[in-house]
Amino acid sequence: MKYKRIGVLYGGISRERDVSLAGGTAVADALRQNGFEVVPIDVTHDLDVQLRSAKIDAAFIVLHGRYGEDGTVQGMLEMMRIPYTGSGVLASALAMDKALTRRVLSDAGVRVAAGVVITDVNNRTVPQTLSLPVVVKPVEEGSSVGVAIAKTDEEYSKAVQSAFDCSKRVLVEQFVPGKEIQVAVLDDTVLGAVEVVPHKEFYDYEAKYAPGGSTHHIPPRLSKTQIEKICVAGKTAFTAVGCAGAARIDFILTPDDEVVCLEINTIPGMTPTSLLPEIAAHAGMNFQQLVTTLANRARLHI
Question: Annotated catalytic residue: which of 12, 263, 274, 278?
Fold first, then answer.
């Protein structure tokens, strides 16, 4: 046990608060069972005051979305010299920005879908370089918040408005058909991959967190060569962005066997339906072991 008194940072003020509360509660319980002294911290705008009062040895971050997964909390912890789990300030901010992530991944040789960033909420015409169907995403949200597939001009207009309600910039990507495969990486080790079959049209917020929202296949129903190809792409993406601790990288495997990266999650979900714990369990690491490993690897990055 590298640290004794662990602060579990959860809840927060993003749109993903409920998921964070569920995951943070599970993490706190696991840490207690493994002998850690746990201080639950429901993050507010007074986080600095909360941290000074808590007097923790390290922080286990179970926050999602803005003000938690985007480098802001990581920066505060660096300033206060409190070691924390997961990626540092730069990698967290970079992975949260889907537009910048695309550039870094492309430069590293990881394929991404054709896409355009728009900044004008009144621009309701599909970019000329793309064709319907397209996927519309807020640039700076996680857990598929505000994401929609648009098959018609009317759907596109509604999707753009919804995405702009979440973000000042919106990413429009060419829809890529295929199997959804997600890879879990723990520092230098690829833990494995899972094939996700959503019970709706795509793997949206409800499919991710509602019980029965999707079916998971571990290992994916693919050839060994295909799985290895995707896992290599996952490790490449993890390294290119500069991630640390645990991350989940989401891909589409097209019918032509092309591996297309959708996004990187630097703080994967830790709820009962979350994929990181499920992949880790298949690799022989139960939830308590996973949580303890992450806690013991908490560190400063600056």
Answer: 263
Catalytic residue status for 18: no
Instruction: Look up the pTM and report it.
Output: 0.93
Cβ atoms of residues 26 and 287 within 8 Å:
yes
Domains and CATH numbers, the chain: 5-86 (3.40.50.20), 94-111+177-290 (3.30.470.20), 115-174 (3.30.1490.20)
Beta-strand (E) ranges in 226-286? 246-253, 259-265
Q: Is 122 a catalytic residue?
A: no
**CB atoms inside a 10 Å sphere around CB 156:** 21
Q: 151 - beta bridge partners?
A: none
CA within 13 Å, CB half, 252: 16
- Determine phi and psi for 137, rounding to 5 degrees: -135, 140
**143 counts as catalytic:** yes
The predicted model gives 52-57 an average pLDDT of 97
Q: Please say if 209 is a catalytic residue.
A: yes
The reply to whether 205 belongs to the active site is: no
Exposed / middle / buried, residue 177 (Cβ in 10 Å: 0-12, 13-18, 19+):
exposed
Indicate which residue of 142, 234, 248, 274 is catalytic.
248
Q: Is the pLDDT of residue 212 over 80?
A: no
pLDDT (tens digit per residue) in 139-171: 987 657 789 999 999 999 999 999 999 899 999
86: annotated active-site residue: no
